[in-house]
């Protein structure tokens, strides 16, 4: 296929169809009739000489080529809009509501906020620090626009921020007696790290007992610092007065934890443009 110049207007309509999950909803978003949107997609398919959609029952799903084009379309649109803003002297304004778990508030969050500020200095950020499951629920309800989470949520667009080792953490002077059940410090439900710890101990056949349950990370830190037991967390929780127990101590290896930045299903315009710009430059 010879190289062609993709039409930005057609790509914008294409992305709108995917994000709003119908041609009719996309037509409202781009201020066109549904028949005009259909014609635009026919033109785009002609340009790339590939079908973008396939029928599945009464619905239309993206083909493999459609999925490939979607990724590039979002990046091209973000770069196009950023270039237009820079040339015109306009800037992204408004408020973006971001949720972040306590685990990353002191580690990756400052760098992320710094990046936001450099890209769009007039943007106002509202930060909600809390537990990941509750932040994701808040994003689903539209109370926040974006959230950082180590959980898998394939229904939302995401950018991977960091993959960190998960480890067994205890106080520096804590002594683990392998002849006794492991003293566990865990969060109450729902908790990814709680489930990970219990699953891996069960698989390894290691006896355990819960000595402390906390609803927040500061509570878990306090219990670990007091020498009440061991907890499973990502390395972001480490501090000079903690140490790591590993396979040499008889504990199973834990899987790495991937932190993703998720975009809600109905974010405001500022949040959408910010996310698109971040995605375009591949943080």
From TrEMBL:
SUPFAM superfamilies in the record: Periplasmic binding protein-like II, Winged helix' DNA-binding domain
Domain of life: Bacteria
Entry keyword set: DNA-binding, Transcription, Transcription regulation
Coiled-coil boundaries: none
UniProt keyword Transcription regulation, yes or no: yes
InterPro entries: LTTR (IPR050176), LysR_HTH_N (IPR000847), LysR_subst-bd (IPR005119), WH-like_DNA-bd_sf (IPR036388), WH_DNA-bd_sf (IPR036390)
Family under the similarity heading: Belongs to the LysR transcriptional regulatory family.
Name of the protein: Transcriptional regulator LrhA
